[in-house]
Design brief:
- This protein is of the alpha+beta class.
- It contains ten helices and eleven strands.
- The protein has helices spanning 2-37, 50-55, 61-82, 88-132, 183-200, 207-228, 236-242, 318-321, 333-340, 347-361, and strands spanning 139-140, 143-150, 161-167, 171-179, 246-254, 259-265, 271-274, 277-280, 303-306, 312-316, 370-377.
- Strands 1-2-11-10-7-8 form a six-stranded antiparallel beta sheet. Strands 3-4-5-6-9 form a five-stranded antiparallel beta sheet, with helices on one face.
- Strand 7 (271-274) and strand 8 (277-280) form a beta hairpin.
- It starts with a helix and ends in a 5-residue tail after the last strand.
Length: 382
């Protein structure tokens, strides 16, 4: 299905391109015919300028130059039919048409060059995302996992939302988070947290130590930015560095215990789907986001919740619950999940349903990036 859809897109693009090319040629034909038939004191030749100008907005420089040449030829035919090729009025029109065609061709060249550059940048961004935000495994011990990343802008392949998973000797650890802001700063913060998690998730036996390493990763980035800004006098850049933080949720799911242990650092609580009910796993003591330990020195509190066979755990970033419809109402995630609880979807099917509903609710445009991770506990393998 996916390959068929990808093959259909270029076909539709070519068909759309041919339809667009018909516009300037139809304009040239129409102006030429009418200009020959109208009285001699009426001159429609200047309208031919629109043909190369319109072509430059969607076609390359070669096609733009060709359309311009056809327009000049058409104006020459009009001049010969109506008076003569050397008629002063038609001569000026032909010269102006040549100049406009040359200018339009030049701008078509600039547009094509910029589009090629943007395409290369998108390819680089996509490659960087595959390195920074690696796909989660479909299976991790007794867990069935699915994930999806929804970019707020189609041109952007990556942002500050993050997720990762790591296997330990006794279970699976997962991370989901959201770096403050957008752009390169958010991507930098996200990559630091992901790097720290991948290095230490398998090594640290307890969640508080793991969270401490994640905190240190964000703090090291703030220090490096502060030094690069040459101290407090650096102004706004230094202020932005001081305010850098990452909301995060760190989970530890043992293979042989029907529980999930988690630490919440300012992140939306996960939702547990069990027997047709949706339960928010709110922690009694949610710590501040990573990177704010210097302002608030929290104790890392690990809380334990039941997570048995058949249960599904949904992790998400605030881009999901902050999506709005036309009335500016927030997306009712819990109510949507409760309405679908009877379908008993597996994680991939649940995320497909949720993604389609979320995008339809927001009119196809999210206000912020959104990440979703669904985890189902299966029967423990021997």
């Amino acid at each position: 299905m996916g390959s068929r859809r990808r093959a259909l897109v270029p076909r539709l693009s070519r068909r759309g391109g041919l339809l667009l090319l018909a516009v300037p040629f139809a304009l040239i034909a129409l102006v030429t015919v009418v200009d020959v038939l109208v009285p001699p004191e009426v001159h429609l030749g200047p309208f031919l300028i629109a043909a190369p100008a319109v072509t430059a907005s969607f076609a390359g420089p070669r096609m733009t130059a060709f359309v311009g040449a056809v327009a000049v030829l058409a104006q020459s035919v009009v001049a010969i039919v109506r008076t003569s090729f050397t008629d002063l009025n038609h001569t000026y029109q032909i010269v102006a048409l040549v100049l406009i065609s040359v200018i339009a061709t030049f701008f078509a060249h600039l547009r094509e060059r910029d589009e090629s550059r943007v395409t290369r940048l998108r390819s680089i961004a996509h490659a960087a995302q595959s390195v920074v935000l690696r796909p989660l495994p479909h299976r991790a011990g007794p867990l069935h996992i699915a994930s999806v990343y929804l970019a707020a802008e189609e041109e952007m392949q990556m942002g500050g939302d993050l997720y990762a998973a790591a296997r330990t000797v006794s279970g699976t650890r997962l991370l989901i988070g959201d770096a403050r802001g957008k752009g390169l700063d958010a991507i930098s913060e996200a990559s630091l947290v992901l790097g720290a998690f991948r290095v230490t998730a398998r090594r640290e036996r307890e969640l508080p130590e793991l969270v401490g390493h994640l905190e240190a990763g964000v703090g090291s980035e703030e220090e490096s930015r502060y030094e690069a800004g040459a101290g407090p006098e650096a102004g706004a850049d230094a202020d932005d560095a001081d305010e850098a933080f990452v909301t995060a949720l760190v989970l530890d799911i043992p293979d042989h215990e029907p529980v999930v242990r988690l630490v919440n650092r300012g992140h939306p609580p996960p939702l547990l789907i069990r027997a047709g009910r949706v339960i928010a796993l709110d922690t009694a003591e949610a710590g501040p986001p990573l990177g704010l330990a210097d302002i608030v020195a929290p104790e890392v509190t690990v809380e334990t919740f039941p997570f048995d066979v058949g249960d599904v755990l949904l992790l998400y970033t605030d881009g999901v619950v902050e999506a709005r419809d036309r009335t500016r109402a927030f997306y009712p995630l819990t109510e949507r999940l409760a309405a679908w609880a009877g379908h008993k979807d597996d994680p991939p099917a649940l995320l497909d349903r949720l993604r389609a509903d979320l995008q339809a609710y927001a009119g196809g445009h999210l206000g912020d990036d959104a990440a979703l991770v669904a985890i189902e506990r299966l029967a423990t393998e021997p």
